[in-house]
Amino acid sequence: MLLILGALAGASAMAQNADPSEAQKTAIISEFTRSAKMDGVTLSFVLLNNKTVEALFSGEGKYAMRARANMATIFFVQGVPEKNIKLDPQFEVEQDGQTYKGETINMKNLQSGNVAKGTRIEGLIQLNRKIDLNQPFKVRCVHNPSADFKLSPETLKLLEN
To answer: Domain of 60: which CATH number?
Structure first.
């Protein structure tokens, strides 16, 4: 979790000062982030919505990302391998016994192949539909442990504002 928050601060065009709005952005991101260790890398998954897109992205791209996140379930995924790994980014989301295959969108090294220790991995996982955020769900890379999401009532209320 600390990895994603620290890395996002550097990678997402968030300002480097510590004013209250930056603290609020970090709090929003943490509410919608879960992590899982997968084959030598801990990947963090941020559920994208209007609040997290606002906190993570800037410029013209922010509006396109917000539109995508409103049409389908999308996760921003990030990690840094602890050792040299061979990545096979086939992600899926499971909810209520149904499995949804995710489309991987590479931003930085989120593609099949070798990734060197210490190299940043970033990208998006997009489902072809919206899932029910009121129900628990799991994000996993095929044949690996999952990042389990169960959003609290307080977190779900953040989506209403």
So the answer is: 2.60.40.2320
